[in-house]
């Protein structure tokens, strides 16, 4: 059932879900929502399971015309959301009806918002996922970002009896603290490791779903260390250091790489970098693997807490 | 198995959910076989908490749920398996024929490759399609193969300025590597030919034509054959 017509697409809005697993070793990256906390919460707010597809909206737009009654929720970046011209809240369920106009303004904090609809966006699953992977032209709407005139359908799912809301929201500041486990090639950077973990790096505008390119003091490798290694699988959160010494935090659209990785951001902090904007300052803090696993447990507990606070059923 | 295989494997954390298992430190057939044998063992007999196994050249990434298994337990499990690897676990390698129309509009850089190596274009074709190439690993783009064994008489540097658009199926050379672009993309490889086959097609029952461990055999075809095969692929 078509529920939304795209009047204006905005610069980059794609259908995403939890990701496409099982094909990374065939060169097909995981893709999926970059901020999984915001994606999952948006789904909870309209009564969907976490794996349902949402719309990931980058920086601003789109302008959507409602074609059928449906519950929606917008989470993630604060986007100056309006419905029929009136400011509308994020992080809670909104009921919209045919003829309504949902308009996303400029991101005021964070850079990626997530729009969930009852039943999830219904696009054909490709290799087990609805996530859009634009350079592979698969998933989402014809493997591409939205364009004007697209009709978006939803899957089966009841509208809610009463609205849900999250009583708090994450803060996306312009100073971002990322905890990271050194490695897998930290030994290539015996001296630069101190720099990496003490000096702020600036997010550049060459940042996207493949990686966040940062700018700051050059991370020099040891004179005996190789410039590159035999290509190995890439991991969401790996901080790779190309020969120019400027770190790149890998996101979800790379499967393999031959650059050395100085550290890897912990799962619990991946959403923070996903919401970073050009010009933001990033500071890295070292944690042991054991500490990272404690943080991982806290993170999963936090996601459960969010689900309970919203009033959604256990997954 | 022989070869410079690490015994025991080297383990490295790649963040809080991935254990990198290194079985060697070289691009080497025996190491690569060990990677694939261990991948098969782990997929056949996964410990609780193991989510994915992603093989590459000489290492594999093991994705796990840290709430379900401790890395030390996972390492011990993998260490045990690595002691008893058997090439019989590896799927029998196949040789996949890749028809290529060399030269002309299909391979605009073939003249450069020939001149750079002091041979003629027919020799480039003969050398490039002589022996099959082992697929060490797949990555970078869907279905993009990292191949071994390009004849040294074909080694050619990349373009000074990459093309903004290389068509799907383009066959190229970059330094000591040869490969095929599965999808249209920018690229700096010297293009010597093009295959009409779709290396990646998500609509097919099997989106891929091969897997790591198989070999590719290039077969020279005429422009007429190229167009006929392309029509079949589109059908």
TrEMBL record, chain A:
Q: Give the signal peptide range.
A: none
For this UniProt entry, the molecular function terms from Gene Ontology, in alphabetical order, are: ATP binding; hydrolase activity
Q: Where is the Carboxyltransferase domain?
A: 25-302
SUPFAM superfamilies annotated for this entry? Cyclophilin-like
Database matches in SMART domains: AHS2 (SM00797)
Q: Which InterPro entries match?
A: CT_A_B, Cyclophilin-like_dom_sf, PxpC
Q: Which PANTHER family did the record assign?
A: 5-OXOPROLINASE SUBUNIT C
Q: Which Pfam families match?
A: CT_A_B
- Which UniProt keywords are given for this protein, alphabetically ordered? ATP-binding, Hydrolase, Nucleotide-binding
Q: What is this protein called?
A: Biotin-dependent carboxyltransferase family protein
Automatic annotation (TrEMBL), chain B:
Task: State its Enzyme Commission number(s).
Answer: 3.5.2.9
Stretches assigned to the Carboxyltransferase domain: 9-210
**Record PANTHER family:** 5-OXOPROLINASE SUBUNIT B
Q: What is this protein called?
A: 5-oxoprolinase subunit PxpB
* GO molecular function terms noted in the UniProt entry: 5-oxoprolinase (ATP-hydrolyzing) activity; ATP binding
Q: Cite the entry's keywords alphabetically.
A: ATP-binding, Hydrolase, Nucleotide-binding
Record keyword Phosphoprotein present: no
- The answer to whether the entry has keyword ATP-binding is yes
């Amino acid at each position: 059932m078509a529920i939304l017509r795209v009047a204006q697409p905005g610069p980059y809005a794609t259908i995403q879900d939890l990701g496409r697993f099982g094909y990374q070793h065939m060169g097909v990256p995981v893709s999926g929502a970059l901020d999984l906390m915001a994606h999952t919460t948006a789904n909870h707010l309209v009564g969907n399971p976490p794996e349902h597809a949402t719309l990931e909206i980058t920086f601003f737009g789109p302008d959507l015309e409602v074609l059928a009654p449906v519950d929606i929720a917008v989470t993630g970046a604060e986007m100056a959301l309006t419905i029929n011209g009136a400011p509308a809240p994020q992080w809670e369920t909104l009921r919209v009806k045919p003829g309504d106009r949902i308009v996303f303004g400029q991101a005021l904090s964070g850079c990626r918002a997530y729009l969930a609809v009852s039943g999830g966006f219904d696009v054909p699953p490709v290799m087990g996922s609805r996530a859009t992977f634009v350079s592979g032209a698969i998933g989402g709407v014809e493997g591409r970002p939205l364009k004007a005139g697209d009709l978006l359908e939803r899957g089966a799912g009841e509208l809610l009896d009463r609205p849900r809301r999250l009583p708090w929201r994450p803060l996306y500041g312009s100073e971002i603290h990322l905890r990271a486990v050194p490695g897998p090639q930290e030994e290539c950077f015996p001296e630069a490791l101190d720099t990496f973990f003490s000096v702020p790096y600036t997010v550049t505008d060459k940042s996207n779903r493949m990686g966040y390119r940062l700018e700051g003091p050059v991370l020099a490798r040891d004179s005996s260390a190789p410039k590159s290694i035999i290509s190995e699988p890439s991991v969401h959160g790996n901080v790779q250091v190309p020969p120019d010494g400027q770190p790149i935090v890998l996101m979800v659209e790379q499967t393999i790489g031959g650059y050395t990785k100085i550290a890897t951001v912990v799962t619990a902090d991946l959403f923070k970098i996903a919401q970073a904007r050009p010009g933001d300052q990033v500071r890295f803090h070292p944690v042991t693997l054991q500490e990272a696993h404690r943080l991982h447990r806290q993170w999963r507990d936090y996601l459960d807490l969010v689900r309970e606070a919203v009033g959604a059923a256990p997954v | 198995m022989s070869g410079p295989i690490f015994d025991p494997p080297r383990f490295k954390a790649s963040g809080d959910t991935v254990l990198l298992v290194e079985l060697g430190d070289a691009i080497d057939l025996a190491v690569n076989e060990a990677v694939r044998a261990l991948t098969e063992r782990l997929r056949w007999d996964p410990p609780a908490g193991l989510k994915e196994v992603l093989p590459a050249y000489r290492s594999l990434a093991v994705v796990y749920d840290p709430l379900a298994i401790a890395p030390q337990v996972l390492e011990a499990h993998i260490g045990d398996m690595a002691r008893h690897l058997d090439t019989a676990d590896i799927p029998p390698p196949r040789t996949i024929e890749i028809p290529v129309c060399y030269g002309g509009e299909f391979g605009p850089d073939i003249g450069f490759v020939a001149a750079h190596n002091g041979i003629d274009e027919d020799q480039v074709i003969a050398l490039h399609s002589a022996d099959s190439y082992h697929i060490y690993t797949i990555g970078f783009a869907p279905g993009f193969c990292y191949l071994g064994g390009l004849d040294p008489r074909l080694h050619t540097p990349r373009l000074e300025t990459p093309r903004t658009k290389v068509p799907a199926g383009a066959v190229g050379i970059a330094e000591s590597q040869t490969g095929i672009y599965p999808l249209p993309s920018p690229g700096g490889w010297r293009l010597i030919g093009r295959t009409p086959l779709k290396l990646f097609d998500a609509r097919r029952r099997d989106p891929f034509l091969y897997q790591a461990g198989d070999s590719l055999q290039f077969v020279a075809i005429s422009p007429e054959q190229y167009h006929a095969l392309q029509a079949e692929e589109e059908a």
